[in-house]
Amino acid sequence: MKPPKTFKVRPKMAYKLLGTAIELNPEKGYDACWARHIPDWKAKKMIFVEEVLLEEGEYTIIEP
Length: 64
What we know:
Blueprint: E1 6-11, E2 15-16, E3 23-24, E4 30-34, H1 41-44, E5 47-49, E6 52-54, E7 59-63
């Protein structure tokens, strides 16, 4: 099984995953991958950034 293809994104807002130390800063770029195991991921363009699930409109792709 090959690893998922990653790309760089920047979240449009600050996010914090409750109960963890995971935070996303809108000033930084992060590695992301498509959330292929989530139903309807393609239509919503859902991605995982670290362990945070984002959908279209919540991020900007900065590097393919």
